[in-house]
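#structure-requests
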Amino acid sequence: MNSTFLNKVIILLAFAGLGLGLSSCAKIHMGVVNGSAQLSQRNFTYNGQAKGESSAVYIFGIGGNDKEKLIDEAWMAMNKNFPLKDGQAYANVRYNLTTQNVLGYLYMKRTQHVTADIVTFK
C-alpha cells in the first residue's frame, strides 16, 4: 500500500475517533415537584430534608429497572433513611431523573432522586 494513503486513513480514523469521543457522552436532568402535605397555614414546623435515590445501568438499552421501579426504590430509600414520626409529613416532594449516556445506548445510567421537606404539624 501507498504510505500516503495509509497516513490519510490513520488521520481520518483519528479525527473520527476524536469526534465520537467528544460528542458521545450526554447527561439529561428531568424533575417534577409534587407536594404531599397541605402547607396552606402556618401550623407546622420545618424539620429538615429527606433524600433517597436509586440507579440502574443499561447496556445497549437492556438491563436495569423501568422508570416507575426506580421511583419506587428511591421513595423506599428515602423512607428508610428518614422515617416519619407521629405528626410528621413529607412536603414539597421533588423527583429528579438523571440519565448519563456514553456512546449513545452502549452504556446508559439512570439515577432517580427523591427529595422532600419534613414538616411536623402542631
